[in-house]
Structure formats: C-alpha cells, structure tokens
Amino acid sequence: MNNAESIYYKIIDGGYEKIKSIYQEQWEETVFIDFKRKSAPSIGGAQRPDKSIYSEALSGFSNTSGGVIVWGISAPGLQDKADVAIGEEPIFELKRFLTDLNNATSQVFVPANPGVRNTAIYLNDDEECDKGFIVTLVPQSDFTPHRAINKDHKYYLRSGDSFVMMEHSILEDQFGRRQKPKLKIRVRLDDQQHYFLPNSGNAPFTLIIGIENEGKYIATYPCIKLMALNNLKIGNELGDHYNLSRLRQSEDEVQAYVGGRDDVIYPGSYIDVIKLIPIGKVEKYEFICFFIREDTLISFNYELYAPDIVPVKGVYTLSGEEISDFLGLIC
What we know:
The protein is α+β, with helices and mostly antiparallel strands and 331 residues long. It contains six helices and 22 strands. It has two domains: 3-176, Schlafen, AAA domain (Methyltransferase, Cobalt-precorrin-4 Transmethylase, Domain 2), CATH 3.30.950.30; 183-327, Immunoglobulin-like, CATH 2.60.40. Strands 1, 2, 5, 7 and 8 form a five-stranded mixed sheet that branches. The protein has a five-stranded antiparallel sheet with strand order 18-19-16-21-22. The protein has a four-stranded antiparallel sheet with strand order 12-15-20-17, with no helix packed on it. The radius of gyration is 25 Å and the shape is globular. The model is unreliable at 195-200 and 237-241 (pLDDT under 50).
C-alpha cells in the first residue's frame, strides 16, 4: 500500500472521529494530502470553482505520486509555512456534492485516471443528516501527463503543499517517458513435482517461485532476492530449473537470482525462477495436521528489481489451513 492509499484508508476507517483529529492535531498539508473548502458550503452541489479546484488537484496528484483531498476542512495558509488544518466546514447536501464530483471525474482532466475514488464521511457518522465531508483518493497514474480541463487547461504537479504548473522541460519529458514494467511475486504450489529429501522421503509439495509483469512495458534484467525462509529451503540441487542465474551475495541469508538483457518478461507474462522445498514442520504429510491452526506456517521475504522501477518488497505467507486445503487433507 502506497502513501496516498495509507492516508485514504486511515481516514475512511476512522470516520468522523478521524476527521476531527485532522484539525485537532493540526495536520499539515503535504505532497500527499490537501485540504479543501467548498466554495459555498451551504449551497447544494459542486459549483464551478469547486470543479476547477478538483480539476487542478486530479491533474497534480496523478502526475506525481498520488494523493488525498479532504473536502470540508479549513486550512488557511500562513506565509512561509505549510497550510495547517484548523477546523471543519461541513458540506450541506453531501450526497449531491458526492454525485457531482463522481460525474465530473471523467470531465475535468484528461486522460482519465481510473483509480480516482470519492467517499463520503457524514457528520457524526449520521448518513441521515446529509452533511459532512468527502475524501478523494487520487492514485499515481500510469498514463501521465494529465491535463486539467479548467480555465487554463494546464498540466500540474504536486510540489510540497501546493499544485504548480509543469515547466515546459518537465512536460516534454512526461510526453517522452516510456511505460514501465510492474513486477509482482508469483507463487505456485505444486504437489506433482515432489522433491526427495534425504532421510525423509518425498516432500508433500513444492513452491514454484516466479516473477510476473503486470505493467505495460517489457522487463529486462530482472532480479529476485529471497530472505528469511521459514520452514523452507532453496532447491539448489535442481540446477537447470533456474531461468535466472544465481548471484553471489555478501549476506549469507540472502538468495538472489538475476537475468540479463535476453531474460525478458513481457506484459501479462511471467517466468518461473526457483523451487522452494518444505522442511521442518511441513516436510511430511502426517505432520501438517498438527499445525493446521498456525496462521504463518510457511513464509519468506522477497525483493524484485528491474530497470526503471521502484524495488518491490514484501512478505509471502502460507497458513497451515491453506496448505492442508491444497493437499486435500482431512484433519
């Protein structure tokens, strides 16, 4: 979850109490959050100034790292200081304002950013009062640059706590920027390709670890690192199975596999890289039922790399119940 999404869900999950904490704790506007007042809070619907503000914010956040707009918060700026939330200005006829924003989303900037989301938070969490706040999530876009369709039809960026028009040189770079790959871990359980464990017989299953490309551009020179293997070991003896070459690492606990220019992962495709073999608690069928209630019976940390992308880092886990379900065990 990125910064914008984290802020958005924190506010949505907290409801009106979280809205109050925004100005009680005097949150500052940042590169990821912006506070807006409705141009005429007591008049129903989104007015022209509101749509112009919305247009600029959608363009600016989409063209940078994404962000959140909270409508109905007063945050007057002080000279040489970031804007700080100091109070609430709830919006009347909130449902109408929400509908107007949703309808305007596809009209006030181009191209569209399909991830934009508007959510209402009602005063005292009472939907019947039809008064309150709107929280808008604007995710970072893969389709930059986005132009605001307001009075000036300009392209914006989020800079600090403000939206600024793009310089011509930045705009040229945005138009010339190529699409990027988007990598994620791919894990497949396999009970057909058993692996012989010395003194233990056949393992009940294996994990086939790969790299998948969900982006719109090919990934070259892919790399995967595996760490903190829990109840697992690398299937080193498999040799030719690896599609990528093993990289010597200075860290003893890190296993890294890298590819070259010809190791291409096309959009919508994947490559298998390595097998992980269960050991310890899960190396035999008869042991698995004893650990069915363990939420994390198997786990490992991973990192994915390729040119032009931010490294992808995460933790993969498998519970005892998931493993027993896959194997069809009756415990």
